[in-house]
Each structure stands twice: as structure tokens, then as C-alpha cells.
Specification:
GO molecular function, one term (chains A, B): 2-isopropylmalate synthase activity
CATH class of one domain in chain A: Alpha Beta
Strand content of chain A: 15-25%
Oligomer: homodimer
Helix content of chain A: 40-55%
Pfam families (chains A, B): HCS_D2, HMGL-like, LeuA_dimer
Protein name (chains A, B): Citramalate synthase
InterPro entries (chains A, B): 2-isopropylmalate_synth_dimer (IPR013709), AIPM/Hcit_synth_CS (IPR002034), Aldolase_TIM (IPR013785), Citramal_synthase (IPR005675), LeuA/HCS_post-cat (IPR054691), LeuA_allosteric_dom_sf (IPR036230), PYR_CT (IPR000891)
Largest sheet of chain A: 8 strands, parallel, barrel
Distance between the termini of chain A: 50 Å
CATH architecture of one domain in chain A: Alpha-Beta Barrel
Catalytic activity (chains A, B): pyruvate + acetyl-CoA + H2O = (3R)-citramalate + CoA + H(+)
Shape of chain A: globular
Number of strands of chain A: 16
CATH topology of one domain in chain A: TIM Barrel
Number of helices of chain A: 17
Strand order of the largest sheet of chain A: 1-2-3-4-5-6-7-8
Largest interface: A-B, 111 and 113 residues
């Protein structure tokens, strides 16, 4: 495998921010979209489709902010939009104008290529549809844009009326389009048939062909790869396969397959080991739990449970893995739960700079404690700082707590004029003094955080730099009849470092309090280690 | 499509209970296994592989109980096991004896077909490996069993040393095996290459060939279907694709594709509409949340979010679905989101039994209001009841509110002994009276809910049947420096019906309050409609 990516001869075109945002449950803020674009650019994809300016106010804002705030190293930003309306002038179409206003180098235009859709949805005829495509492409090209055309419903359209479908591709290229993208919009294709169609289209037209697949037959990744084998040189994917209905072709599986199975260096070599990390980070931004069994990047993708396999794995891990998990930044796990408990804690200890190998009894106690807490709803997977505190406590390495709580009280008042006041009072002991402070906030937890800071800041000057940067709540449903439990994750930052702590309780405010306290105790520990 | 299933000419072979049980997180009890077998049999699969008797005590028990308790209508139960050990007599191998003791009509034997595995894992040579396969098959056939042979690591083995791999198949058939199953054990195959190999094997041997795929390239379903197109007449799948690492080929997607795309009636016709129900029931038994975006059977598999698509769906639903969702017992849903336009709201209105077609100005206002609210963090995708209230409000169809809030106050006290008290007071106007009530709860929202019920129940008797059945919280991070917003989803039930409402606010308690109020207002609306 060459270490050079294929440049413009092969396009990895990501549409997480446009088509991927159609997934049920995803709502990106503009800030989220900028963060997604940065991660994708870091991976080295060639194109990032950012949205549909004009149609969605949020996307218009995204492109405006992207110009000012994004400094992309690899990717070109792409605006998505439709061709002009039937029987209108392209230079008078506000949607087309919004596309130009997005000010991207590249524009993707969606064009109908199934005659039934032209007639039933667009309510126009084939000739006008072709004119709409040609006019709009030419207009955008004349304004200095590179244009790709998404031929919507191409495969269904080609099966129904091949000449009409090919005619739309011709109009696109005639207008100056660079790539025509064959879209399996309804996702009904299977790989062998799809590959045959792609081959036919290329041999009949000679055009540069791209592929865009939906996962309704659970074949989106396979269809995308089959299209490449049939000659497509532009693949449209979304991170983790997010998309409407069953989703789109998963970027990570497509890239994994193209690089490791077909030997196509479609991303910079060093990016491959980033796939797992970026996949999980993008899930975090989308606020969707990562799919544990996802190919290549899932937490279970290289996890072995079978006793049959375990002995063979010991002989040679390659015998039972289709690739070396390190290639994609993932790791192999053998699921022998009790052993894995000790082993993973020891590994974790190494990360924290704690040598647990010589303290077997402390590890035993810590494993037991972690298991007890996890049975009650705690989770340390994403809360390293709380886990470190737990480990150091077992090793009796923790100094005296920086403060001790006596009590707190939170008052929430929704008055008859609709005004809401949240107020908290804390009573704490810090630096030998008993301190009582009250503060307001925009919610109960915010008020509690404010009161605690007010009480501690005169005594703990380092607190000034510490901020709560993220706050996540999950309600853990219990068996019917029992009370639900709330798990709170708090992410803190001191401007240099970020750390995450966890709290679990039946009461959301107390769960938040526990996580807040861990955050401050962890910072205090670091401060002491430095002085 | 014929209404007759293909009988023995095509095998749908399910291995949910054997290979599927290798999925991380699944532990079936014997009772679970019996329930899974009943559901699969009801679907009409031809074979149910129940486990590995002898190797797993639970599986030995399963086969014993299955004989007594299962009354299978369609499926044959299959026991799975290995060939005899190297350099031993087959009639002295306890594992082979356990296979006979399971007393099934059919046995699947796993055989190594990759020379490297024969040498490194089995530590024997090619000739002895072939003898192990032939001897064991013949012994079981002589004892009246039908035998299938799983050729483990077949595709890797065939690529590495085709003669060795084919030799193992020959020994199996020589011993009397009925079907040789080509296994992509490490899951590294892609459809075009796999189909070519299957074709070669069939043309070189003439054997009856089956296929077993793992999902490590995200192509298990595509590979299975491609193998059938290449001549395989036996497919091994698991429910929902459960299995080791990234999983196996999903039974529901494979069957959906074979029946609706290739026109192969591999299950009884009436079974197809059961796919969705059975998939969810099997997820329930496995104690795994159903995968919402699963092809064919996922809750989102026919959910449409895009406004662009929704307008076309109104014209003809077939334009935007690859199949009629009813075919597989699923349903179409239109998701109302910021991307949605008039068309999705009108479709949604139809679901609620509201005719919006004659009220265009109300639709315009509702679309604007939905977009405004979504821009502030609301989401109606999962909160149909709140959306219905919004629509009816725009149509001025809502009666007077069942109650009006004056104010509420929530007090949370964490005392110095660690005890936490949550208490809420509400002041509301209901049935012409002003009512003040106070109640405690295990958290601020629970206390508020309790106080509201206490205030309303004497006046609204229907409230007695209404319960909060689920409560979800999401913190929506905004740009740094701005305040985060909290979105709360509340699911309510009255024992007959469930409905979901949403509330959004900077303060989590107020967000919860808004969702709680919508839940009660929605119920009141239903109650009035009935009287």
C-alpha cells in the first residue's frame, strides 16, 4: 500500500452533516457541525458536505461561520442544493442564489433521474427536468464552482427507463458537472446487480461515476465497495452510517474495506489508526451511544468470547482476526470477565502512573468496589478521574479532602409571573473554617455549583481556573416498581486539561453533587502533586 | 412469488442459539432458549441449531428439555459439535457421543478447512484432518443422522491453499454429509470475491453448498445473498445478526432480501409480516435494546425525516420506500423536525385524525412554530402527544386547559447526616378552585409530580390511571459561553395507551414540568373526546 492518498483521482466524500443529519434523533447545533467538520478533516476525507444553505437556516449559518472559523487542511467544504424549479430562470431562483452565497468551492446538486419521480413529484416532463439540471450546473460552473450531481433514485430509474436516467447524467456533464453520483436513494439494491449497473453506466457514458447508498437491505457498505470494484471513484458515506431510515454507508467500514481489503490508499496512512477514536468522538457529538458491534471500530469488533477460539488466539491472534485491530486504532479483547477486571484495572493504573502490579490486594479490593458500584448504576468507562480517585483511595494515596460538606439546600421558585429563581445554600468546612454561602443559578445544579465556588474560592485559589465544560444526565430505568437511578457525568477543564467524573443517585441533584465534588477533589490532588 | 416455501431445496438455517449466543452481553437460560426456538419455528425456518451438547452443560440440558417440551411445526432441531480428535477412534470420542445423545435428526459438524489452522490449532496434518472429518460424518450417518459440515475458515483457506480446502469438502461428502457450508469465520470477505469463490467451488465439486458469514466488513448480509445468487442453497443466519465480534448475517435482512428482492419464497408467505414482531421479541429475550435502524425491522427502517421526501411521500409512498413496510410487519412514520415542511405536518395530522388540508394557514403557523421551537432545542420526533397539542392549538381545537398553574416551589435539603429530602409545593387553579398542596418525592421532579397529583386528583378522577412510565433527560450543549438547555421526554401510560411529551428549558425542573403538564393536558383531551 502506498503511503500517499489518491488525491483527486479518488474521492472520499462525507455527508454526515447533510444526509447523515436525517437520522432520527440527531439534531446538530452549528457548533456541533463545526466540531464534526474538524474531526472529519483531521481524518483526511476529501470533501465534507455541510448542509443545504437556504433551505435550513442553521446550515446557512454553518457556512457563514465555517468561512470564518474553520481552517481545513485536507477537505473541501461542499454545499448541497437542488436544481432550479421547473419553468423558471436559474438566475432568479433564490435557492440557487443561497447556494452561491454559501461561498464553497464545490457544490453538489441533487437531480431526479427516475422518470416516475420527475412526473409525480416534480410534476414536469423529461425535457424540462434535463434543462433544469443543465442550466443549474452551467450557472454554478460559470460562477466558478466545481459541481457534482447526485442522480437521485438512479438505480430504480435506470431499471425502469434507462434512457431517461442516462439522459439526466448527460445533461449534468453537458452543463459542466465533474462527477455524476449514482444514488440508491430508497436503498433497495444488492451488490451483484448494483455492480453490473455501475459497469454498464461507465461503459455506456465514459463519465466519472460516484456512488451513494442507503442501508435498507443492510448492504450499503457492500454496495459502495462493489461500485468501486465496478469503476466508481467517488464514495459518499456518513460517519457510523448515520442517515435516514436504516442509514447510509458507514464511512469507517467503507474506508476500512477499501484500504485493508482492496489496497486502495483512500486516506492518509496515519489516519487509519484514528478511525476508532474519530468514530466514537462523532457519536459523542451526535449524542448517540456508539454501536458496540460496528465493524472495524466497535468496542466488540475484536472481542472474543468463544472458548473454542480462545486457545487458538493464544497460539496466534491473526488466526481469528480478519485484520490486526491496531490498524484501525481498535484493540482485541478476550472476554473472560473476572480476569479482564483485574487486567483492565492494572492497565488503567498504568495510564494514571500508578504501579498496581505490586499491590495485588489493593487491585482485588478495587475490582470488587468497581463491580459493586457498577451493579448500582455507576460507570467508569467515561469517568477516568473518578476511577483514579477510587484507585488511589484503595492505595491510601489520597490526602485529606480539600473540603468537607456539612449540608446543602436548593430552592426553586416558579413565581406566578412565570419567573423562575434557583437558589442554593452550602455549608462546608474548608481550611479549618466553617463557611456558609448562597448563590443563584439558571437551574438547581448550576446554583449549587455557584454556591460551592463562592464558599471555596477564598481558600482554594486554583478553583478560579476550573470550569464545568459539559454535563450529561442519563436516567437508568430499573425493574418496574423500583426507583430509577440517575447517572451524571461532569466534564471539567482548567484551560489545559479536561477530566470527567461521575455521580449516581436516585436524586439528580445529589448525583450531580457527587460528580462535582469528585471533579474538585481530582483537581486538588493534581495541584498538590505539583507543589 | 409462489406461496409455497421451498422445502428441502432451500434451507433457512438459524444459529441464534449457538453462534448467536457468542455475542458479548448475551446469556440465555435454558428457558430463554426454548422460547427462542418456539419463535423461530413459528416463523417457519427450516433448521434451528440449538447449541453444542457435551461442550456446554446448558446446551445438553436444552436438548433434553427440547425433546420433552418443544413441539416444532416447521423446523428440525440441530446439534452442533466438532469432529473426533486427531489420532483417536470416533466411537471412543466423548464429545461425538454427546452429539448422538442430544438425539436430534440433524447434526452440524465443524471442520477445519484452512491448512494453517489444521497445523497450528489442531496440530495435525492434512491427511489426518480429512480422516477426522470423513470418520465422524460416516459414524453419525451410520447412526441415522443427517449431517451438515461447517467448513471453518473456508474462504481464507481456499485463498491460501485451494486443494486442501476442497479436500476437506470431499471428505465430508465422502463420509455422507448432505451440505458443505462455506464459512467466512473471520468475516473478512466482500461480496464480489465471495460470490466468485462460491461459483468456483460449486462448478469444481458439484456439491450442495451452504454459506455462513460474519459481519467484520459490515457485509455479512450482502455476502450471504451474493452466495445464494452464486448457487448456495443453505443460509446460516442469526436473529438480528447477533454473534461474536461484529456479529453474524442478520436472519431478518437475509430473508427480507431473498423474498422481496430475489423472489425466493424461503419462508411461508404468512411469516414475512411477522419479521418485525419476532425480531423485537427475540431482542427482548436476549435483553438487548432493539436496533432502531436495523434494515426491514427497525423502528426507524421506514421513518422519513426529510421535508424534501415527505412531499413526495404524500403523492405516493412507494416513491420513497424500497418495499411496502406492511410486507414485513413494520410501518411507515413521518418524523416532524426542523427539516420537515408542510407535507410532513399534514401526514402527521392524518395520523392524529386531523384534516389539515383545508386549513393551510394553520399549517403555515404550525410549521413556523415547530421550526422556532426546534431551533431552541425542542424535538417532536419522539413526542407525538406534544405535537398533537401544538397542532390542535393552532386549529383552536383545544378546550380550556384542565388546570392552570399559579406557581410552584421545590425545596431540596441535604442535611448534615446525609439524609436528603425533596419537597414540592404547587398552587394551581382547577375546577374553579385555587388549590395548594405539598408533597415529597425521591427527587425534585418526582416531588413536583406528586404535589401536582395531590392537588388535581380530587377534581380530575381520570388522573388516577395515569402513570409516568419513562423519563429521559438530555442536556443540549450550546456554544461556549451560552447556557445549556435541558430537554426532557416524559412517557406516560394509562394502562391502555402510552404517549410521549417534551419540555425544554434552561432549568431541568421547569423542562420536566412542561413535559408533565403536556402529558396531563393530552390525557384530558382524550377523556373529553370520549365523553
Amino acid at each position: 500500500m502506498s503511503s500517499l492518498p489518491l488525491g483527486d483521482t479518488f474521492h472520499v466524500f462525507d455527508t454526515t452533516l447533510r444526509d447523515g443529519a436525517q437520522r432520527e434523533g440527531i439534531t446538530y447545533s452549528v457548533t456541533d457541525k463545526l466540531a464534526v467538520a474538524r474531526l472529519l478533516d483531521g481524518l483526511g476525507v476529501g470533501f465534507i458536505e455541510g448542509g443545504w444553505p437556504g433551505a435550513m437556516p442553521k446550515d446557512t449559518e454553518f457556512f457563514a461561520r465555517a468561512r470564518a472559523e474553520l481552517d481545513l487542511r485536507h477537505a473541501k467544504l461542499v454545499a448541497f442544493g437542488a436544481t432550479r424549479r421547473p419553468n423558471t430562470r436559474v438566475d432568479e431562483d433564490p435557492q440557487v442564489k443561497a447556494l452561491l452565497d454559501a461561498n464553497t468551492d464545490v457544490i453538489t446538486l441533487v437531480a431526479k433521474s427516475d422518470r416516475r419521480h420527475v412526473e409525480l413529484a416534480l410534476r414536469t416532463d423529461e425535457a424540462e427536468n434535463r434543462a433544469m439540471v443543465r442550466d443549474t450546473v452551467r450557472y454554478l460552473v460559470d460562477h466558478g464552482r466545481r459541481v457534482f450531481v447526485d442522480a437521485e433514485h438512479f438505480f430504480d430509474g435506470y431499471a425502469h427507463d434507462p434512457d431517461c436516467a442516462l439522459g439526466v447524467l448527460e445533461s449534468a456533464v453537458d452543463g459542466g458537472a465533474d462527477v455524476v453520483v449514482l444514488c440508491d436513494t430508497n436503498g433497495g439494491q444488492l451488490p451483484l446487480g448494483l455492480a453490473e449497473t455501475v459497469e454498464q453506466v461507465i461503459s455506456r457514458t465514459g463519465f466519472r461515476v460516484g456512488i451513494h447508498c442507503q442501508d435498507d437491505t443492510s448492504c450499503a457498505v457492500a454496495n459502495t465497495v462493489a461500485a468501486v470494484q465496478a469503476g466508481a471513484t467517488h464514495v459518499q458515506c456518513t460517519a457510523n452510517g448515520y442517515g435516514e431510515r436504516a442509514g447510509n454507508a458507514d464511512l469507517f467500514a467503507v474506508v476500512g474495506n477499501l484500504v485493508t481489503k482492496l489496497g486502495l490508499p483512500v486516506l492518509p496512512t496515519e489516519s487509519l489508526a484514528e478511525l476508532t477514536r474519530v468514530s466514537h468522538a462523532l457519536a459523542e457529538i451526535a449524542n448517540i451511544a456508539p454501536h458496540t458491534h460496528q465493524a472495524y471500530v466497535g468496542a466488540s469488533a475484536f472481542a472474543h468470547k468463544a472458548g473454542l477460539h480462545a486457545s487458538a488466539i493464544k497460539v496466534d491472534p491473526e488466526l481469528y482476526n480478519h485484520i490486526d485491530p491496531d490498524t484501525v486504532g481498535n484493540g482485541m479483547r478476550v472476554l473472560v470477565t473476572e480476569m479482564a477486571g483485574r487486567a483492565s484495572l492494572e492497565l488503567k493504573g498504568r495510564e494514571f502512573g500508578i504501579d498496581l502490579a505490586r499491590r495485588p490486594e489493593a487491585v482485588t479490593n478495587a475490582v470488587r468496589k468497581v463491580k459493586e458500584l457498577e451493579a448500582r448504576g455507576w460507570s467508569f468507562e467515561a469517568a477516568d478521574a473518578s476511577l483514579e480517585l477510587l484507585l488511589r483511595q484503595e492505595l491510601s494515596e489520597l490526602d485529606e479532602a480539600p473540603f468537607v460538606l456539612e449540608s446543602y439546600r436548593v430552592l426553586l421558585d416558579r413565581r406566578s409571573d412565570g419567573e423562575i429563581v434557583s437558589e442554593a445554600t452550602v455549608k462546608v468546612h474548608v481550611a479549618g473554617e466553617r463557611v456558609i454561602e448562597t448563590a443563584e443559578g439558571n437551574g438547581p445544579v448550576h446554583a449549587l455549583d455557584a454556591a460551592l465556588r463562592k464558599a471555596l474560592l477564598p481558600h482554594l485559589s486554583w478553583l478560579d481556573s476550573v470550569e464545568l465544560s459539559d454535563y450529561k444526565v442519563r436516567i437508568l430505568a430499573e425493574a418496574p416498581g423500583t426507583d430509577a437511578v440517575t447517572r451524571v457525568l461532569v466534564e471539567s477543564t482548567d484551560g489545559e486539561r479536561e477530566w470527567t467524573t461521575v455521580g449516581v443517585h436516585g436524586n439528580i441533584v445529589e448525583a450531580s453533587w457527587l460528580a462535582l465534588c469528585d471533579a474538585l477533589v481530582h483537581k486538588a490532588m493534581r495541584v498538590r502533586a505539583l507543589v
